Amino acid sequence: MAGLRGTVYEAFCETVSAHATRDFLCIVPDTAARYGIEARTWSYAQAASEVERLRTSYVDAGIGLGHRVGLMLENRPAFFFHWLALNALGASVVPLNTEWRSSELEYLIGHAELVLAVVPEGRAAELSSAARTAQREMVVAAAADRDRVVAAADLSYFSLPAARRLRASFPDLKKPSIAGRLKADTESESETECALLYTSGTTGRPKGCVLPNEYFLKAGDWYLNIGGLAEIRRGVERLITPLPMTHMNAMAFSTMVMILSGGCIVPLDRFHPATWWDSVRVSGASIIHYLGVMPALLMGAPAAASDREHQVRFGFGAGVSARLHAPFEARFGFPLLEAWAMTETGAGGVVIANREPRKIGTACFGRAPAELDYRVVDDSGADVGVGQPGELLVRASGPESRQGYFREYLKQPEATAEAWGGGYFHTGDMVRVDEEGDFHFIDRKKNVIRRSGENISAVEVEGTLLLHPQVLSAGVAGVPDEIRGDEVMACIVLRDSAAADRARLAREIHSFCTERLAYYKAPGYIAFLDSLPLTPTEKIQRARLKELAVASVAAPDCVDLRAFKKRPVSA
C-alpha cells in the first residue's frame, strides 16, 4: 500500500469495490450458539451495507471526528461493523473488555472521555452507573436483545432517544476541538486516531495506547508482504482467531491483513479446545492465530486420525512451549510461526520466524528485519554480548524512528517519554541474540526469578511442567526466600483433581523437572489449585499469580520441596 495513506474504512471500501462477492466475515456454528446468533457469512458487499446503515445512524446522532466510542461487543460481527462505520466518520473506538467491572470501567470512561458506549442490554445499567461515578456525560446505547447488537442492521435503539440525549448533553459534539485531541487542519487521515487500546496494568492503572489509522494499515501491509512460510494468497485465505478484538493481534494484524488481501476473518468467541478443530474445519480456515496455552491444550487431547484433516497452512502466534513445538507440528502437519510484537510497537517493531531454519525448540522468534533497529542491554543500559540475556530495545530504522508504533500513552507524557528513553522503546522483554542474529525469548523482565544469582524464566519452567501427564496447567512465580532471594513456586492444576497423595505427586513432578532442567530451576514449592488466574486471552495474570504464590506458601497443603533441590554430584 503506497505511503500507507488513508483510513481503515477507506481500505475496506477499496476491497469492497474490487471483491464485493468475496467472503469478509464468517461466524461458525459453535461461536454462533455461544453468542445466541445465526451462523452465517457476510460478503464484502453485505458487510458494506451493514456498515453504511450504522454510519448513517451515527451521522444522525452527531458522532464525528475527535469522538471516542466504547464498544463492548466482544468478537461479534457487530464489532467489525461498528468499528468501520465509526472510522468512516473519523471517530475512534475503544474496545471494552466484558471482564471489566465497575472500578475499571469508571476509570476508563473518564480517562478516555467516552461520549458513547454500545453495549449489550444486560450491561447498560452498569455502564451508566460507572459513567455517573466518573462524572462523565456518556450515552449508553443498549441493544433490545442479544441478536440486535450482533445483527447491527441499524442503530434505531440509539439514534432516536439516545441521539437526542447525546445532542442535548453535547450541543457542540460535532466540533473536534472539544477534546483537543486531533489537529484536523494539519494531520492526514492516516494520522488521525483510529483506536485507543488499554494495556493491562500490573502495578498501576492500565495505559491507553493511542493508535492512528497508519498503525493499522502498516500492520496489515506488513503481514501481507512478509512472505516465506507466512505467504498470504490474495482473495484466498480464511483466518481463524480466538483472540479478542480488545487486543491488537486480532484487531490490527488478523483483521487488517484479511481486509487488505480480500480474505475472510473468522472470529471465535474464545478458545474452546473441545470444539476448536470442528470450527477450523467448518470455516475452511487456512491460517490460525494462537497463544502458547493453545498448542499445549490441543496436544493434551488423545491423538486422532482426523488430526490432519484441515486446510491450515500455518499458525501465527507466540509462546508455544519449546518442548511442544516440534511434536505439535509433526502431529498436526503445519508450522507454528513464532512472532514477537507489543501493542506499543505494532508492525513498526515486529519480528517473526517465518523462514527456515526456525530453530524449533529454542524459543526462537526470528531475526530482525532491515526495518528494525534494536539493542539488547543489561540493567545498566550497556549492550550485552552475543548469546547473553538482556532487555530488548527497539525502534524503526531510518529518520522516522516511531513509524508504525503507538503514538503515545494517553494523558501520560512522562510514561511515554520513559518508555522511549534514549530513543529506543523499552520492551521489558528479556531475550538473547545468537551468533546468526536470531532472537530467543527468555521471559518478561518482571517475570524472571532471581535465585542465588541465577536468572530463571517462569515460562521455561511452566513449559516443562506442562509435559507431565498429570499437569493440566501451571503458573510459576518467584516467592521470597531469606537465603536465596527468590525461590521457584509452581501453582498447578491437575488433570485428575481427585489425586490422593499430593505430597507424593509433588515430589514426582519435582523429579520430572530435575531430569529436564537445571536443578535450581525446579520448583521449591508446589501448590495444587482448582484454577489459575487467566486473562480473556487465556494468558496467566502474572500479578494475581504472584499474590496467590506468596499466599500459598503459607497454606498447610503447600508442598515444600526445597530440601530436594540439590546440586548434582559431578561424575
Tell me what the CATH architecture of the largest domain is.
Answer: 3-Layer(aba) Sandwich
* Radius of gyration from the alpha-carbon trace, in angstroms: 24 Å
Number of helices: 18
Q: In CATH's first tier, which class of the largest domain applies?
A: Alpha Beta
Q: In what range is the share of β-strand residues? A: 15-25%
User: How do the strands line up in the largest sheet?
Assistant: 10-9-11-12-13-14
Could you characterize what this model shows?
It is built from 18 helices and 26 strands. It is α/β, with parallel strands linked by helices and 571 residues long. It folds into three domains: 2-339, Rossmann fold (3-Layer(aba) Sandwich); 369-448, Luciferase, domain 3 (Roll), CATH 2.30.38; 452-564, ANL, C-terminal domain (GMP Synthetase, Chain A, domain 3), CATH 3.30.300.30. A hairpin with a 4-residue loop joins strand 19 and strand 20 (438-444). Helix 5 packs across helix 6 and helix 10 (213-225) crosses helix 11 (248-261). The longest helix has 18 residues, at 44-61. It is globular. It starts with 7 loop residues before the first helix and ends in an 11-residue tail after the last strand. The relative contact order is 0.08. Residues 144-163 and 169-186 have low confidence and may be disordered.
